[in-house]
Amino acid sequence: MNVHHRAWGVWAVGLAAYLVGVMHRTSFGVAGLDAAARFHAGPAVLSGFVVLQLLVYASLQIPVGVLLDRFGARRLIVVGALTMAAGQLMLALATGLPLAILARVLVGAGDALTFISVLSVVSAWFPPRRVPLMTQLTGLIGQLGQVLSAVPLAVLLHGPGWTTAFVSAAVLGVAVALAALAVLRDRPPGAPAPPRAPSPREVVDGLVSSWREPGTRLGLWTHMGTQFSGTVFALLWGVPYLVAGQGFSPGAASAMLTVLVGVGIVAGPLFGEFTARHPLRRSWLVLAVIGTTALMWTVVLAVPPPAPRWLLVLLVVVLALGGPASMVGFDYARTFNPGHRQGTAIGIVNVGGFFASLLVALTVGVVLGLIGPADGYSPEAFRGAWTVQYVIWVLALVGVLVARRRARRKMAIEGVVVPPLRELLAERRRPR
Questions:
Q1: Total domains in the fold of the chain
Q2: Could you report the per-residue pLDDT of 25-45, keeping only the tens digit for each?
Q3: Residue 432, in any domain of the structure
Q4: What is the membrane topology noted in the UniProt record heading this document (predicted)?
Q5: How far is the C-alpha of 343 from the C-alpha of 123, rounded, in Å?
Q6: By C-alpha distance, which of 409, 400, 395 is closest to 283?
Q7: How far apart are CA 120 and CA 429, in angstroms?
Q8: What does the DSSP 8-state code read for residue 387?
Q9: Hey, which of 2, 129, 236, 396 would disulfide with 50, CB 3.0 to 4.6 Å?
């Protein structure tokens, strides 16, 4: 098998590991109401499950980036898959809160090891011109893991039951770990060996250098502003919101998560191709997605519940654009940092969206507990709770604009001048 064909095989296995990881990550989204009954958990406690999972994920991103640069992608992907499988098995057997919470901690830890390791495989095995598109395909096809949790896992959950559903998820995790161990390699045959493992001092210096790079910070704010709303919707509050807040049946609410994935898969390659063709205009795509998402939520929340079904479908379509747009943040990390610290830079970027997600998931749960009825959720409580998102959007927009200006200033010093968009449009309107 030549290197080109082998690259696709390696990518397929890495993609499968990420896809199953997304299933583990989002499994609590479809099981939220069942978990509330099983563990006698109110809104704040329920949000605490996902918040803790995301906190572990986000806090491990920078250490995982350092580990990736040191130990390589294959080891981290295998360990991540086995760790998530252990968490799902523990959740399958849990009957009380402490064990269930520990289970979600394991899922968050294993999840943290997976995605940026798969991105490292993409960068190593594919030519640079193809990397933006392959990054989008990885992120978006991987989101089919939400479909695995929204459909087959939900069927098992509401059929054979809680234990069968999560044991099945654990078995699937072990299967992809074995596949990764057998097939994945960190780099193609004949590729230069990676540099020696950095010393602790060099690790700190690399972390500081990555953070000081304006492009890394631009990637972090990009990831934060685009990713969190869809993540919170898919991981925890989307199904309860649609069922208790908008009158959907559980099956129809789960189906909406498949719409989220499907639209993202269509948008991902388009965003990836745009990023590859117009690398100096990536930020405009990011700003457009953040603005459109905030506007769509404003329209939905302005309508007294229940909102028209078509409007909620449109909301989900817009939320689906956040995933592809967040991939632009990783592209910033790749193009603004040298190869020996890209793992660290990608880890920094990945903190943004998931840190925002855990803050919003927790705050939505707290607000629901404060203004909602004592025996569950109400449409008006959800309507008020979702407004906490605006704080993150404002913060991310300011961060993107400031970091973009600093990145462009540095690029100009290096001889790359980004002309204002109005000048570019005026040039195109002039007769030839």
A1: 1
A2: 888 777 777 887 788 777 667
A3: no
A4: Multi-pass membrane protein
A5: 11
A6: 400
A7: 41
A8: G
A9: 236
